[in-house]
Structures are given as C-alpha cells and as structure tokens.
Design brief:
heterodimer; A: Rossmann fold; 2 domains; 6-stranded mixed β-sheet; 17 helices; B: about 325 residues; mainly alpha; two-stranded antiparallel sheet; 15 helices; about 75% helix
C-alpha cells in the first residue's frame, strides 16, 4: 500500500466532470509532479486532498488510514499542507502575525505576544534559511516573490507530512527558486510526501522524480522522469502530438527602430534605461522579479510617467499620458494581473474584446451591430479562442483562454508595439504553444514585441534578443549565441557575461 | 429567440418586481375600491414618472460604484430656479429653462469632477453638493420658495391621453433612451467596465475619470427633470420638496437589482424598483400610516433590499462555481 493513496475519486461541478474515477499514489521521500493543461483536474484533486472541497465518491488514505477531514483545518491537522498559487495571506497584518494565524501562541491577550511572535518568526526564518524578510513588516509591502516565500514557510512551519506545491514557483524569483530547491531536497530526506504542480518543464525535471499526467479529469499515466521525454509528456497532456514545444525562430528583424527610450529614470525603479527596439523583433526582458521590468513596461504603456528621460516612437518623441494615448499611438500592454487589470471578469467575452475599440465602431455614440460582429468573429478565429457563447462572462473561460481574450482584445487596436508582462504565467502548454506561434507571426508581420517573463527557458526559445535588468538598469543585451539561460541567470545575479 | 429567453431568465427578479406591483394594486383594490380605479392608477403612474426620473438618474452613479446624495436639492433647485426666475426676476420661460439646464449641468459636472479627478468620496461630495445647492437657493431667494409654476409646465405635467399621463409616456421614452445608452452605446460599454473593474478599464484604454464624471452629469439632469415635473404637478415649488427622496431613490435602485458595488443592473430594473416603491408609498397613505411609520418603513425597505442584494447568492441557494 502506498503512503498516500487516492482511490476512485470523482467530482462534478454541474455538468462538468472535473475528476473521473481518479486513482493516484505517492510514496514517502519522492517528489511527485502533477502535469496537465489548465482544467485537467490537478487543482481539483489537490483541493479535495486539502478538504477545501468535497468530492462525490472515492476515498483518500494517508498511511493506510482513511482521511475524513471536511474542513481545511482538519486536513492540516491530519498532516496535509498545501501551498496555493493564490496567496492566502492577509495584506495589512505583519509577517509574524500571518505566520501564526490560527495557531496558539501562548497567552492570546498577552502584551508580549507581538514579541513572542517576532522571535518565533525569526527562528523559523533561520531554520528555513529565509533572508531579507522582517517579521514586523506588513505583508502588503512585500513583493510577490516574498509573499510566496512567506506562504511556503507558513505551511512548512506546521510540519505537515504531505506537502503540496500548487504552482508555487511561478511567482518566485530565480534565487528563491534555488532556495526552494534546497528546501525540497531537505523535505525529501525527512521522508515527506511531496507533490509538485508546475507548468515549467525545466523545474519539474530538476525538482521531481516521478510524474503523473492528467487530462480531462483523468489520470492518464505515471512515469519516472528519468525514463520519459518531454515530447511524450506533452503528448500525454494534450492527447495529441504538437509539432514542437517552441515555434521556429526566423530572423524577421527590420532596420528601422519602433520604440526607443533615452535615460528613462524613476527613483528606485528605473535607472537610466536606454533601449532600442526594432520592427519585426521579439525582445525579451529577463532578470530577477521586481528589478524594474514592470515599471519599464508601465512607463512604455503610458500608465506611469517616468521622472526623467524620453520615449521615442518612430524616432519622434512620444507623450504618453495614459494607456488610452499609448493605444492610440499603437502601443498596447498585456498587464501583470489578468483578473484585475487585463479583463473585466464579470462582463461578457464580447464586451471585453470590444472595450478598446467601442468608439471606432460607434456612430452617434451607438454601436454598429454589423461591424461589431465582424470584429468579434475575426478575433475569435484568429486566436482560436474556445468560446461556447461569446455572450458568456469571461470568467467562465479557463485561464489560458482568458489570456487569449486579453491578447485578442489588444490586437483589436492593431498595435505596432506589443508589451507583454509575464503573460504565460499559469497558462498550459498547448496554449503557450499557440501564443508563441502567434508572437512569431506578429513579428514576421513587422510588429515589435517586448516580452517580460520569469521563465528563462521561454525567453531563450522565443526571443531574438533578451535584455537583463537588475536594480532598474539594463545590465546585459544578449542575442545570437550569447543568448543562453546560463548567461541570463549570470547577468541577473550581477555576474559578468562572457 | 434563444437570446430573448436568456434575457428573460437573467432579469427574472425585475419581472418579479413588475408582477408584484400589479398584484399589489389588484389585492389592495379588493379592500379599498378606489385604489384600482383608473383615476387612481393615473395618479400612481405620474407619481411613478417623478420618482422614476430620479431613480434612473441615480442608477448611473451607482453603476460606477458611487452614489448621488444630491438628488433632493438637485430637483428642488431646478424647480425653484425656474419658478423664482419667472415670477420674481421676470425671465422669459425659455431663458429660465436655459438657466436651469446650465445650473444642473454645472452642478453635476462639479460633483463628477471632484469625485473623478480630485478623488473626493462620492458620498461626501454629493452630500456636500446637496448642502451647497440648498444654501445657494436659500440666500438667492431670501427664503421664499419661488412661487407658482409657469402655466406651460403645469399643463404638460397634468396632461393625459386617456388615463395615461403624458409624463409617464415621457418617462417611458426616458427609460428606452437610457437603456439604449447602457446596452448599445460606446458609453454604456465603458460604464460597465469602469463599474466592474476600474483598473482593467484603464488598461483597456478607457478614460475612467471622464466616464465617472458623465455618470454624475446624467444623474443631475434626470433629477432636474424629475423636479420640474413634480413642480408642474403640484403647481408650485417649495424648499425641501425633494427631501424625502434621498433614500427612496437608493432603495429603488437596490430593489431594482443594481449592485451597490457598481457594474451590475440597468435602468429598466431600477424603474421596476421605483414602481414598487411608488405603490407601497401610496398604499401606506391609503392605510393612513403616519409620517413616522412611513419614514421607518423607508429605512427598513432600503436595508432589506441591500441585505438581499448583498447576499443574493446565499439566499438563492444556487451557488455558481467555476473551477478548473
């Protein structure tokens, strides 16, 4: 009998079968990866495991004993710790308070509670080798990567027997991924059961020993990672073959510059950034998270005004006061947060797609139905968005399809320059492939694309050129043979690049 | 056909409001014969038009996630300025209308500007505007109320086709126009985007501030129209004529299915709330409820509607889940 055993688990949401009679086993001391497209059932399985959700039939056993938890707290007490992608931290409480939320910590009303909590927090941080986070700091002042780190520590500090990382690395900076790697090795030695969900092949290969693939709510097979190729895994996930993981790179770069910046400066964020982007070029921005990449994209999209420096579009100085003006001039941004910046989740797919262009298809303020339909049909077709009904709210789509809607929405304005902020985060392999193919096609059509990603593998395989940022400054400009993951990493941590 | 079915299904609450209104009239007229008579229904319909204009105006700020507390003096101001201008200052009627229009738009613009650009909280700003208008009226008219309403307006406000008041037809046209604005115009699409998620709207190239400001201007204009019709029906204007409307408009909007958090609902819905409230108010008068009881009930109805609206999912029992 396996140490963690799931038998015949089924769960349906309305008419959708999220899990179909799923069997799954994991053993102590192994790092078990779960792979699958968005909506394949990985998250549902994890939620059932953590009692965040009920299931219709089947059972879950830990060490041969059936789990009967009906509340997340009971699951936690039974030894199941889950680190979710969506953070469960409370922003305006301190780091220490968040760490011990819901835990007994001596006298509840004691005036010394704060001191005890801070001291315990420091001890825990020491134990888990976390640096650079002050226990008294409020959580809202932390970066996304630090928040994710805190979330990991919070769960691990309760010493669970089963540790689940649900896309816990997607928000981590490169050095923190290293830290996590060390931590996972240590957990392995302590004979914990570790389940690891990620969309990044590179990390799965590094972290894990066994992989189980899900498709459409079913377990389609478990393999040893040493005995399986990426292509086979992708095929298992998709149920079909795709030509290649990344589209072929062809040099479509043209002579004339699309977008230039001269000594762009914003205190603490941008340190005299001067870049030159040409038409037909896909340029990546790399580096550790929070090194000014977001500020640069926001400045170029008009959402933030730099304190000094200028932005040139087609060689002429461009005044970009807000995203509206930038869009009118042909610069569009896919913003960081899909749910709060990219899309209006409650509105329909159609309304979201049309937002940037409603004025263009309106006469005397009223929308022309014929033009509306033409635009919508074209958008859905060109990006292969899987929509049941275009009048359904956009939050009825899966993450990958939502991101396609964001992209399709921006393409409505026919931008010359496309700025993308980590837009493949949490997007499944099949969709990524579609999107990268689209990016290369847009470049071939003469568009200029600036693409920030935390995934170095993506940057190397998709971009013609990668700029590495560190502390607000562009530290390296890598292209051709010098464009390797190793060089990006070196430049991001301040090493010289050969 | 399918589309219409979906529309009906999504708006079942609103249909329910209209149905309940009709049933209420039917049931009460069993006990009080006059309640269901054509002449009384005609009275109800013109009351409905007055409250209705205020409510469909209020819908717009609420859709942005804001609120308009300046409705009482916005309507009062329109009525008093017109009457005082014509009676005491000897303006011609068209000139008086122009002044009313200018003042209304100005007040709406100032409120909207301060809320959108200067980031004053909508409740504080519009309540302040209410107070400013009240003070301005008091000092300009030296406390007199403006006097009688010009004849043209009274004729319009009291005119009927059969038993149907013209102002109710005028109001129906208002609903249709604003419905078109909400559902089929570029402004409507932007308004819903802003109401649901300002940041996403901003990144989609929408001028969030201008959209917000326009909502307060629309509300001001609708309130003024309501005020003028009321003044026409009563035959004169008086200070404080709009006071009781402050919370009623909010209650009607909430009953009509407009989310107080913004971004959900439409004017046909809020009009259903206005109709229901008009009938309930009239019912209370018939039942000879005291002013105190009426005020108390406003409060209870408003809170009840807000609690229902905020907990719709829980009470509805059908919890939608999207899980992947």
């Amino acid at each position: 009998m396996a140490d963690l055993e799931v038998k015949g688990l089924s769960k349906a949401f309305g008419g959708v079968q999220a899990l179909q009679n799923v069997d799954f086993q994991a053993a102590k001391g192994e790092v078990h990866a779960l792979l699958g497209e968005n909506g394949a059932g990985k998250s549902t399985l994890i939620k059932c495991l953590g009692a965040c959700q009920s299931y219709d039939s089947g059972e879950i056993c830990l060490n041969g004993k059936r789990l009967t938890a009906v509340h997340p707290r009971q699951a936690m007490e039974a030894g199941i710790g889950i680190i979710f992608q969506e953070l469960s931290l409370i922003p305006n409480l301190s780091v220490a308070d968040n760490l011990f939320l819901g835990m007994k910590l001596g006298n509840k009303t004691s005036v010394t509670r704060k001191r005890i909590a801070c001291r315990r927090a420091e001890k825990i941080f020491e134990e888990f080798k976390v640096e650079g986070i002050d226990p008294e700091q409020k959580v809202e002042s932390l970066s996304l990567s630090e928040k994710q780190t805190l979330e990991i520590v919070k769960v691990l500090s309760r010493d669970p027997e089963v540790v689940v990382f649900d896309e816990a690395t997607s928000a981590l900076t490169a050095n923190r991924v290293e830290w996590l790697f060390g931590l996972v090795e240590q957990l392995c030695r302590q004979k914990k059961i570790i389940i690891f969900i990620s969309h990044r092949m590179g990390e799965i290969r590094r972290f894990c020993s066994v992989v189980t693939v899900f498709r459409n709510g079913q377990n389609v097979g478990t393999r040893l990672l040493t005995e399986v190729e990426n292509d086979e895994l992708v095929q298992m996930m998709l149920g079909r073959k795709i030509a290649g993981y990344y589209p072929e790179k062809t040099d479509t770069c043209r002579e004339d510059a699309a977008l230039e910046t001269k000594d762009l400066f914003f205190e603490h964020y941008l340190d005299n950034v001067s870049i030159r982007l040409k038409y037909g070029e896909v340029v990546g921005i790399g580096g550790l998270a929070g090194q000014g990449q977001n500020a640069l994209l926001l400045a170029l999209s008009g959402a933030v005004k730099a304190q000094r420096g200028e932005i040139l579009l087609d060689g002429k100085q461009a005044v970009l006061k807000n995203p509206k003006q930038a869009m009118a001039k042909g610069i569009s941004l896919v913003p960081e947060e899909r749910a709060t910046e990219g899309l209006v989740l409650e509105l329909s797919i159609a309304d979201n797609l049309l937002l940037p262009v409603v004025s263009d298809i309106a006469r005397f303020g009223l929308i022309n139905r014929k033009k509306e339909k033409e635009l919508l049909d074209h958008a859905v077709e060109s990006l292969q968005i899987k929509v049941g009904n275009i009048d359904n709210p956009v939050n009825s789509l899966s993450g990958g399809n939502q991101q396609k809607v964001v992209l399709a929405k921006l393409m409505m304005t026919h931008p010359k320059v496309l700025l993308l902020y980590d837009f493949t985060r949490g997007v499944d392999v099949g969709t990524k492939n579609t999107m990268f193919t689209l990016l290369r096609k847009l470049a071939a059509d003469g568009n200029c694309i600036l693409f920030y990603s935390t995934d170095m593998e993506e940057l190397v395989n998709v971009c013609d050129r990668v700029l590495v940022m560190d502390q607000g400054a562009v530290k390296a400009d890598l292209s051709g043979e010098r464009l390797t993951e190793e060089n990006i990493l070196k430049a991001s941590i301040g090493d010289g690049v050969a | 056909m399918e589309k219409w079915k979906a529309v009906l299904k999504n708006n079942s609450d609103i249909l329910g409001n209209y149905l309940i209104s009709v049933l209420l009239v039917a049931v009460i007229s069993i006990f009080y014969r006059g309640f269901g008579s054509l002449s009384h229904i005609s009275v109800l319909l013109s009351d409905f038009a007055i409250l209705g204009f205020l409510v469909i105006g209020q819908t717009f700020p609420v859709l942005t996630g804001g609120i308009d507390m300046s409705v009482p003096y916005m309507m009062n101001c329109a009525a008093v300025v017109l009457n005082y201008g014509v009676n005491t200052k000897n303006w011609s009627l068209p000139a008086a209308f122009l002044v009313v229009a200018a003042i209304t738009l100005l007040a709406g613009t100032v409120s909207g500007f301060c809320i959108a650009w200067l980031k004053v909280h909508p409740m504080i700003m519009t309540y302040g505007m209410n107070s400013i208008l009240m003070g301005a009226l008091l000092s300009w008219t030296k406390g007199t109320a403006g006097g009688f309403t010009p004849e043209g307006l009274t004729i319009f406000a009291k005119a009927k086709i059969g038993f149907l008041p013209v102002v109710t037809l005028f109001f129906a046209a208002g609903i249709l126009t604003l419905m078109l604005v909400l559902k089929r115009s570029a402004y409507g699409k932007r308004l819903y985007a802003v109401g649901n998620c300002k940041r996403a709207a901003y990144f989609s190239g929408i001028n969030v501030k201008a959209v917000t400001m326009a909502a307060y201007m629309i509300s001001a204009v609708c309130a003024a129209v309501g005020g003028l019709i009321m003044s026409g029906r009563v035959g004169q204007s008086y200070l404080g004529m709009g006071d009781s409307y402050m919370f009623i408009t909010l209650a009607a909007v909430a009953i009509g299915g407009i989310s107080m958090n913004g971004g959900k609902g439409h004017v046909a819905g809020s009009a259903s709330g206005a109709l229901l409230i008009t009938i309930v108010l009239s019912m209370l008068t018939v039942l000879k409820a005291s002013l105190g009881v009426q005020q108390l009930l406003y409060g209870v109805v408003l809170l009840g509607a807000l609690i229902l609206e905020a907990n719709k999912i829980r009470f509805g029992g059908r919890r939608k889940k999207y899980d992947h």
